[in-house]
Every structure is written in structure tokens, then in C-alpha cells.
Amino acid sequence: MTPTDKKLIQTLKGETLTPPPIWLMRQAGRYLPEYRATRAQAKDFLDLCFTPELAVEVSLQPIRRYGFDAAILFSDILVLPHALGQRVWFEEGAGPRLEPLRDAGDIARLSPGGLHDKLAPVYETLRGLGRELPQETTLIGFAGAPWTVASYMIEGQTSRDFATAKTWAYRAPEEFAQLIDILVASTSDYLIAQVEAGAEVLQLFDSWAGVWPEAALRRWCLEPAAEIVRRVKAAHPEVPVILFPRGAGLLYEAFAAEAGAEGLSLDTTVPLAWARKWLQSRVVVQGNLDPLLLVTGGAALEAGVSKILETLGTGPLIFNLGHGITPQALPEHVEQLVAQVRGWQPGA
Ligand code: CP3
What we know:
Helix content: 40-55%
Bound molecules: coproporphyrinogen III
CATH class: Alpha Beta
Shape: globular
């Protein structure tokens, strides 16, 4: 099987497959008992990300269980600030922590020079997955988008309102632009190296795009994403890119028209009929199912899945969630979801 015969890649080239291919954001995670068991073998979460043997194993777990059409590299968006020399750690039950950047001097002290050495285990994980994945499964590499990564670098943790990062950008846009530029360059290099290690599709996660007004969203989310797509395509024109500007609202349309990516991942709030008219006419769409339906299952899950298939399934669609799967999701509900999508026939 050549890469172009793989369902995810065919879809990203614009073909409509019936049923559509399916994978789930955060498909490897705590809702799976086998993930929790492998996780317990690592010293901490970053150690799990940086131990290729364990990271390959957890990436494969959801493929073995559900036969998804794609495996996503197991890692985290915060390995990039770590590779730039910032202190990053994960506190049990509390999420990510970073030693926050406080001023222009802290930005100037970031060191992109050691990037590939520090990220070598991630490339090793991709090579391992290239050897072990079933031949029909697409391998997805990923990175965080500059704004979302910058928000963690400045806030030092997940934030409710991103006040420190946003006020920095409003008060001193040239300084903030220096950070974004460093992230555009290092993220592009990182993604290019992922392709060279075997990633066949790339996804850029901008989980916090939705906190900005229009002009700032264009400046700090859309322009950096478009520049990363340009740089990746200059090195590897054939590799499809999916953007996930979560919460972008009506500006999803600007991403479809201007960013140069093949795919757009839709959050849960994007209206489906609007997406069909304004987005799917220009790009391949992915996502939108509310991840909490995998906690409840049953008729609510069935209805949510049907709505997406009926509205978007007659065009190029990658079935996915509107955000990552939660630890409370039940594995049997994921099974129900996969069975429904795989059994779907239009108009039946
Ligand atoms: O999708 C996958 O299966 C691949 C792996 C993946 C992880 N994180 C593993 C992970 C991916 C693609 C990410 C992306 C990521 N990481 C994002 C963007 C997507 C999103 O969800 O918005 C963000 C914002 C992060 C930062 C991050 N990492 C947070 C906020 C947390 C804590 C939240 C939580 O669920 O605990 C993490 C930790 C993390 N990353 C876990 C996993 C499986 C849980 C860690 C654990 O096992 O204890």
C-alpha cells in the first residue's frame, strides 16, 4: 500500500470517502486502562513523552483497540518550550507548569540551537511507529501553534483569561512578536524534522485561539499558522496540514481561505450547516463531536454522530472530536462511536 492509498491522506487530497476516516484527538490517554498501566512505568509525564519505547506503545494502544485510520504521535505541545531551554514539568493532577517568561530578556535567553538534540526522542518515536503501524494507518505528527504555546510560556500554566500573555501582546507587540517569531521558526523546523522521521500528516493545535478579537487573532494565530504552513510546504510540498484554531468562530472562514492548509479541525461550537457552506467548499473538515458525549454514550452520542455524518459526510470529512477526549470517557462508548461511523451509509 502506498501512502496515497491511505484513507486519511486520500481525504486530505479532497476525495469524499464513505464512510469517512476516523481518529480522535487525545485518543491515547487516561480513559484507557492500558495507557494508565504504561504511564505508571514512566517517572513522570515528560519521561513518558521522551522514552520512545513507551511513547510508541501508547500511540499504538488506541489503534489496536479500535483500528483508527490514523495514529497520532504521543507527545505534548509543551516539549517545544522545554527544547527551547524553558523549565517545564507536569504536576500530578494539576496539569502543566512552566517557569514563566517575565520580560524581553527571558525571550532573548531562549535557545533554539539545541532544538533537534533535545527533541531526538520524539523523532525516534516517529521512526518506531513507522515500523510498527499497520500499513493502512496514517501517522500524524503535531505541534502547538505559536499563540497557544506562548500562552503557556508566559502564564506558566493553563489560564482562565490569559491576562498576562494578552496584556503583554497589547502593551509591547514588538516584544511579543519576537517570541512568536521564535516559535514560528522552531515549530516549522520541528514539524519538518517530524516529516523526515516519518510523519505523513501534520496537525497544528491552537487550543486558545478563541480568546482574541479579530485583528489580534489574525496577527497572533492566522499569520503564524500560514507562515508555518508555507515553511513546511517549502520543504515538503506533499505533506497535508490540518489546523485547529479552537474557538475561532466566524474567523474559521479566514483560516479556510487564507492559511494554505488542506484541513481544518472544527471545535464543538461551529454550526455544521455553516461549516458545510463556508468551510467544506474550500478545505477538508475534521471534528466537531462534543467529547463529553463519550462520557454519556447512548442515544445522545448516536444523535450527535448522525448529525455530523448527515451534514458533512457527503463531502471530504475526517470524523473526529471538537476537542480532546476526556479521562472520564468510557472505552465502550468509543467502540459505539466507531461502529456507527464505520456502518454509515448516506440516506440510510
Ligand atoms: O492526541 C493524542 O493522543 C496525542 C497526544 C497529545 C497530548 N497532548 C498528550 C497528553 C496531544 C496532541 C496533546 C496536545 C496538547 N497538550 C494541547 C493541545 C490540544 C488540547 O487538548 O487543547 C495542549 C493545550 C496541551 C497541554 C497539556 N498537556 C495540558 C493542558 C495537559 C493537562 C490536561 C490533562 O488532561 O491532564 C497536558 C497533559 C497531557 N498531554 C496528557 C496527555 C495524555 C495527560 C497527562 C497524564 O497522563 O497524566
